[in-house]
Amino acid sequence: MSKIKKSLLMAGIVIIVVLLSYFTWHKMKGSAEDDAGIIFFYGTECSHCQAVEKYIADNQIDQKVSFSKREVSSDSKNANLMVKKAMECNIDTKTLGIPFMWANGKCYMGDNEVENFLNEEVKKGGSNQQEQQ
């Protein structure tokens, strides 16, 4: 085999190894993010979600409780994550709706349940970070 062919073969192998490493790392990173803390799932056109978001803003909940926000009506990755989290709580996907909050293995659905959960978190002392995706 010529030097050029050997060099191209080696370059191809290196590229494949780098890509596989990247995708493996990215998948592991995504799994860790999916399972972390508290996640608020909402839709931009959902009036109940808007009521929860107003409640969060009016009471500065986002300054007191750490949670991530995931919009599900236009983001299929977030919608799939919501279904996965609901299934962990044995919620039938036919009855699944938003607003929906997943918190360390427990699920809260509907504006009243979500707001009540957030109130309890504030009473416990929550934390002060929020992440939107």
From the structure above, extract its key features.
133 residues; alpha/beta; five-stranded mixed sheet; 4 helices; 5 strands; 53% helix; elongated
What does this structure look like?
Residues 28-32 and 128-132 have low confidence and may be disordered. This protein has four helices and five strands, in the order αβαβαββαβ. The protein has helices spanning 3-34, 47-58, 76-88, 111-124, and strands at 38-42, 67-71, 100-103, 106-109, 130-132. Helix content is 53%, strand content 16%. The protein has a five-stranded mixed sheet with strand order 4-3-1-2-5, sandwiched between helices. The protein is elongated, with a radius of gyration of 21 Å. α2 (47-58) packs parallel to α4. It has 133 residues and is α/β, with parallel strands linked by helices.
Gyration radius, to the nearest Å? Answer: 21 Å
Distance between the termini: 50 Å
Principal-axis shape = elongated
Strand order within the widest sheet? Answer: 4-3-1-2-5
List low-pLDDT spans: 28-32, 128-132
Q: Roughly what fraction of the amino acids lie in strands? A: 15-25%
Average pLDDT reading: 82
What can be said about this structure in brief?
The chain is α/β, with parallel strands linked by helices and 133 residues long. Helices cover 53% and strands 16% of the residues. The protein has a five-stranded mixed beta sheet with strand order 4-3-1-2-5, sandwiched between helices.
